[in-house]
Amino acid sequence: MFFAAILLHGLCLANAINFTTVYEWDEFDFIWPSGADSSHGQIKQNFKSSKVYLDYMAAFGERLFLSIETQSGVPATLVWLPTSGASTAPPKLAPFPSWNLHEKDNCDSIQWAKGMETDTDGRLWVLDDGNRKCPGKLWIFNLVNNDTTERVYQFPDTVVSHTFDKRWLHDIVLDKTQDDYLAYITQVSSENIIVYSRKTENSWSVKIPGVRISTLALSTKSEARQLYLGRYGSKELYSVSVSELKKEGGNATGRLIGKWTARPYRMLIDSANVLYAAFNYQSYTSKRNNSTPFHEERFHEVGQLGAGYPFTFALDANGSFWMTERNETDFGIRHKLLKAEVGARSYLYKILLSTDLPLRG
Fold it and tell me: DSSP letter string over 100-115?
């Protein structure tokens, strides 16, 4: 009887995270410009919903921001969705900040949005991998000031190659210091971390010898801050002290933490210092507590999804974990937007207290 009670308690803990489905899409559509001119009409005519592959996510206020893989038939690579609405119908994708910044081969527009993050001051930071004509950039938008473009930073060729085939901008996390924001950025399969300082408008590269990086996540300030790295093509998880990343042109030492059950392509840390990960071709996500020895736990698991990158996720300021789920079958592609209350926020915030939660009527 005692053993049965212990087993039941363990199962309850394992299934404590309850995701609810907010929206489902059989196919996506865009909010097209009203009174569309001939160019927008042609873009709408060429749109292919099957080509929409959600890549990265960020949350702020009552909006979710998503990047889309740039492909023929995809009119915008950076979009947003409302987190709730009066209708139960799934919302259409809205280009961010407007259609005007999504002109193909115009290097003053966004060409290929990749990793993104929102900061605690209401900014959206977006990596733009460019294309064969346009170099890689970092866009910073002010969400509390009508989504204005606050800054566009073009990486120098010495830090991020201006040759398209020699770069692959991927992931970004933000380190808020006493008087600055530092962005740590990865290029797929590179041994280098790109560091950008908002205060000085300067960027540099730090090498992690022997660790080709795929994805990253930043710990909370509750510990000597660590940058966690997923090794490219591997299940291995490494960490590096951020103190080693602030010296231009130097090297930093990667420390092996443990091995996941599969290869991670996306990671995220919450305000309680819990690390979440999604894996290539796996229909589950996992988590681990960074304050304890390496131990992986399943966080969310479904049946076979058939997608190479089935999930993307983000945390908001109210303790909600948002996640998209992509299901590819012989009958088509279906997307879901899921939500769970986890009682923790992004790593940029302090741990969530009950007094921080919004009042509910």
Answer: GG--TT-TTS---EEE
Q: In whole angstroms, what is the distance from residue 294 CA to residue 237 CA?
A: 10
Identity (one letter) of the amino acid at 171? D
Structural domain span for residue 100: 2-356
Q: Tell whether 111 is covered by a domain.
A: yes
Query: What is the distance between the alpha carbons of residues 13 and 277, in angstroms, rounded to a whole number?
Result: 19
Q: What pLDDT, in 10s, does the model give residues 148-167?
A: 999 999 999 999 999 999 99
Residue 25 burial by Cβ neighbours in a 10 Å radius (0-12, 13-18, 19+): buried
Note whether residue 361 is domain-resident.
Answer: no
**H-type alpha helices, the chain:** 2-14, 38-46
Tell whether omega for the bond before 97 is within 30 degrees of 0, i.e. cis: yes
State how many domains the chain has.
Answer: 1
- CATH code, domain carrying 72: 2.120.10.30
The string of pLDDT tens digits covering residues 26-53 is: 999 999 987 655 566 778 888 999 899 9
Residue 338, beta-bridge partner list = 21, 323
Burial of 17 (0-12, 13-18, 19+ CB in 10 A): middle
pLDDT of residue 47: 93
**CB contact burial 262-276 (16+ within 10 A = b; e otherwise):** bbbbbbbbbbbbbbb
Segment 92-122, tens digit of pLDDT: 999 999 999 999 999 999 999 999 999 999 9
Query: Which pair of structure tokens corresponds to residue 166?
Result: 């020699």
- 272 lies in some domain: yes
CA distances in angstroms from 176 to 129, 157, 207, 220, 321, listed in the order given: 24, 26, 22, 10, 21
**What three-state secondary structure class fits 33?**
coil
Q: Is residue 99 part of a domain?
A: yes
Look up residue 143 and give its two tokens.
């969400």
**DSSP secondary structure letters along 226-242:** EEEEEETTSSEEEEEEG
